[in-house]
Amino acid sequence: MPVAGGVRWVVLREKDLPRAERAALAADLRPILAEAGGTLVVAGPDPLGGDAVHLPAAGPYPPPPRRSLVGRSCHDAAELARLTTEDYVTLSPVYPSRSKPGYGPHLGPQGLGELIRASTVPVLALGGVETPAQVRACVDAGAVGVAVLGAIMRAGDPAEAAATLTAAYEEILPPRPATATPEDRATATAGDR
Fold first, then answer.
1. Which domain holds residue 139?
2. I need a surface site. Which of 76, 97, 147, 177 has the fewest CB within 10 A?
3. Closest-CA residue to 51 (of 6, 98, 2, 10)
């Protein structure tokens, strides 16, 4: 399972399934993600008990009443300009995608960077991201993360594919500050007096 390889956001997309079947899938995914500290994102306006909803570029605008984190698919500056209360966007396709052949035009890292600079919310890069070098290029362009579908779904070992891409992402993150212990905080507070 990709969660074993470091995936922490999983999108439940199956929009063609009846609501009851989608809800059952969401119920199956929630404990797996909770155990890993992950986030369940449900495509469409019905959160099905997930942590977030992800909406298409076409609407609805504004998003439905907020019950959770809200994301939106975007592909160009005009779609970014329509954002209202969304918390994040995916920008796609960054590269030609085997999952959606012919979809585009692809942005490339330069086009991705230009749109990221125009965005008012954090951006996840999506579309054709299959290699560690592509992950690095997206993050170098300003993406806060990458969304990957085909590279994991087509992999013989999805957990290993996820681990490889996650490692590339983590290698280029700035170092995180060490977490202070309660004793460190107490000493710092006492020293401030």
1. 2-173
2. 177
3. 10
Tokens, residue 84: 């209202």
Choose among 1, 12, 8, 32: nearest CA to 166.
Answer: 8
What pLDDT was estimated at residue 176?
A: 59
| Within-domain flag for 11 | yes
- Overall number of domains in the chain: 1
Please give the radius of gyration of the chain, using alpha carbons only, rounded to the nearest integer: 18
Q: What is the DSSP string of 85-122?
A: S-SEEEE--SS--SSSTT-----HHHHHHHHHHH-SS-
Encode pLDDT of 8-38 as tens digits: 899 998 888 999 999 999 999 999 999 999 9
At 51, the pLDDT band (50, 70, 90 cuts) reads very high
Report helix, strand or coil for 94: coil
Q: What is the CATH number of the domain that holds 147?
A: 3.20.20.70
Sorting pLDDT into bands at 50, 70 and 90, what band is 192?
Answer: very low
Q: Are 38 and 7 in contact (CB under 8 A)?
A: yes
β-bridge partners, 52 = 41, 69
Residue type, 185: R
Distances (CA, A) of 85 to 41, 63, 90, 121, 177: 17, 7, 15, 9, 30
Tell me the torsion sign for CA atoms 75, 80, 83, 85: positive
